[in-house]
Structure formats: structure tokens, C-alpha cells
Specification:
This is N-acetyltransferase domain-containing protein. One of its GO terms (molecular function) is acyltransferase activity, transferring groups other than amino-acyl groups. InterPro entries: Acyl_CoA_acyltransferase, GNAT_dom. By secondary structure, the protein is α+β, with helices and mostly antiparallel strands. It has 6 helices and 9 strands; from the N terminus they run αβαββααβββαβαββ. Strand 2 and strand 3 form a beta hairpin. The longest helix is centred in the middle third of the chain and has 16 residues.
Length: 305
């Protein structure tokens, strides 16, 4: 688990029910053929406001914008600006060539929720040292949480990453779910009960980051963080980003520090009485980007996540 968020803090307080039986309903699908995941051929770039997942046309004239996929129900709460923001989220794509393959990051679609639930549930169970039979119970809680968070779009979004191997380990052409991260852009998307130390509700917040265990230490966590920052730069009026990191998680703490995050507050030791791990609240001022090409100037940290 690469980052601590409100969901993981809540799950830490639950009792350990060892009698629950695990099923395959929420198990993360490690390798699968994802027809909607198309990897571009260029080495690195960030796409925004693109109209589809199809390969780019040689024509210089851009095609018309695609309609929203699985749009939220019509509501007077959704303004024209909200609808435009939803379109921006649907069109956001972040691509990075890694040493061992390629990584594509975009906003989670509705039909991809169950596999994201599986990845998060298994990661939370691992971080809390729970037995495998507990994953199913966690899955129900995590899915309810993701449904509630998705209803708050475009004020928050869940990103997922797909990894495609280069064939060195016999995985050429196989696309795997690599990781996920949640991003909140403003106070309308903020959690009602955030973890401590409490971040400002009107500031962007990154949480619930995890990388598929077989794909760790390839720089995927680094690029989930970079993609989150890029999306925040486009979606939020605030450039000050917050996240939590557990004190015991040395590798993520090192990654965040190298990415420019600083510790601004730390849980009191009394938090242990609530059966939660002590956490750092970290903060970063995002730079102003003059062009899309500036978001990937840093090299991935291959040995972190």
C-alpha cells in the first residue's frame, strides 16, 4: 500500500472476523484482455480533451468530442461547468514507457469498478495483516465507498493504471491492472470524515493509492502520483496538494519526499488508542505548467512502488 486515505483508516478500526469465507467476486483480475485499453506508440505524453480511445487519425482536424460514458443522472446540481469537467475527466489519459513495459493511467469507468475493488481490498488486507478470507468482507465496504465517491464526480475521481509488458518475462501483449489512486479536487468532493491530521477540505487531496503486488518496484506508484498531480493541475483552482503517509511506510515516505512533498503535521501518539497507525500529513505546492510536456520531466523511481 503506497498511500493512506480515509478508507484505509476506517478499515483499520474494524474487528478481525476470521470466519468469513473468501469468494472470487472481488478478487483482482491480474491479467486480462482489455479491449478498451489502447496503448499509444510514443514514449511519453499526457493526453487531455481527446475524443476517444481509438488510435489518433492522421488527419490534422480533430474529431468531435465523444459523449460522456455512463453520465451521471441529470440533476440541477450539475452545472454546465460540471458537465465540462466530467468530459475532461473522461478524456484524461497519462502514458509512460517504463523499462519493462508501458503504463496507461486514466479515470476508472463504471464497468471497471469490481476489479478496482479487488485490488484495493487485497491491498488493505495486506497492509493490515489480515488473513485472505477477510478480503470478501472488505470488498463489500470498498465497493460501497467507491460508489459513493463516484457519485461526487467531477469533484473527485478514481484513477486506474494498466501495465503492458514488453515481452522480457513472457508477458508481451498482456494488459494487467497495475494500480489505482483517488484524487479529490475541492471541498465538494472532500470526505465528510477525513483521517487525521486533517487536511484543508478546500485543497486537493490524494489518497488510497496502491500498486498491484507483482508489479511493484517498477515506478508505477511514482507515475500514479504524477498523473494525479497533472489531473489536479487541470481540474482544481488550488495548487497546494495534500496526502497522508503512515509513519511505518518508509518506501512511500521516501517517494513522496523525492517528489517534493513535506511533512506539515503528524498524528499524536494517542491515535494508537483508536487502533490506527500514526500518519504524517504531507503537502506540496504544484508548479504552474506552461505546457502539457512539462508534467513528465522527472524520471520514475523504479525501486519505490
Amino acid at each position: 500500500m503506497a498511500a493512506t486515505g480515509s478508507l484505509s483508516c476506517f478499515l483499520e478500526t474494524l474487528p478481525h472476523h476470521h470466519h468469513l469465507h473468501r469468494t472470487s467476486h472481488y478478487k483482482c483480475n491480474q491479467k486480462h484482455a482489455y479491449p478498451s485499453v489502447i496503448f499509444p506508440k510514443s514514449a511519453r505524453y499526457t493526453l487531455t480533451l481527446c475524443s476517444s480511445t481509438s488510435p489518433p487519425s492522421p488527419s490534422p482536424t480533430p474529431p468531435p468530442a465523444a459523449p460522456l460514458e455512463n453520465p451521471l443522472p441529470a440533476s440541477p446540481i450539475l452545472s454546465n461547468q460540471d458537465l465540462a469537467s466530467l468530459q475532461n475527466l473522461q478524456n484524461f489519459k497519462y502514458f509512460q514507457k517504463l523499462k519493462s513495459g508501458s503504463l496507461l493511467i486514466r479515470v476508472m469507468k463504471e464497468h471497471e469498478m469490481d476489479m478496482t475493488v479487488g485490488l484495493l481490498s487485497e491491498s488493505f488486507a495486506e497492509s493490515m495483516l489480515l488473513p485472505a478470507v477477510y478480503v470478501t468482507f472488505l470488498g463489500f465496504l470498498v465497493k460501497q465507498y467507491l460508489i459513493e465517491r463516484r457519485a461526487l464526480m467531477p469533484h473527485t475521481a478514481t484513477l486506474i493504471g494498466f501495465f503492458k509488458g514488453d515481452g522480457e518475462k513472457g508477458d508481451e501483449g498482456e494488459v494487467e491492472l497495475a494500480g489505482t489512486v483517488e484524487v479529490t479536487f475541492d471541498k465538494l468532493g472532500a470526505n465528510a470524515s477525513p483521517p487525521t491530521p486533517t487536511p484543508p477540505k478546500n485543497s486537493p487531496y490524494i489518497c488510497n493509492m496502491t500498486v498491484n503486488k507483482p508489479l511493484r518496484r517498477r515506478g508505477i506508484g511514482w507515475h500514479l502520483l504524477k498523473a494525479s498531480e497533472e489531473l489536479i493541475s487541470q481540474m482544481s483552482s488550488s495548487s497546494v496538494v495534500y496526502l497522508h503517509c503512515r509513519m511505518i511506510d518508509a518506501a512511500p515516505l521516501n517517494m513522496y519526499s523525492k517528489a517534493g512533498y513535506s511533512i506539515v503535521d503528524t498524528d499524536s501518539i494517542l491515535i494508537l488508542l483508536t487502533l490506527q497507525r500514526r500518519k504524517h500529513l504531507m503537502c506540496k505546492q504544484l508548479p504552474v505548467l506552461n505546457s502539457l510536456s512539462e508534467n513528465n520531466v522527472l524520471d520514475p523511481i523504479e525501486d519505490q512502488s
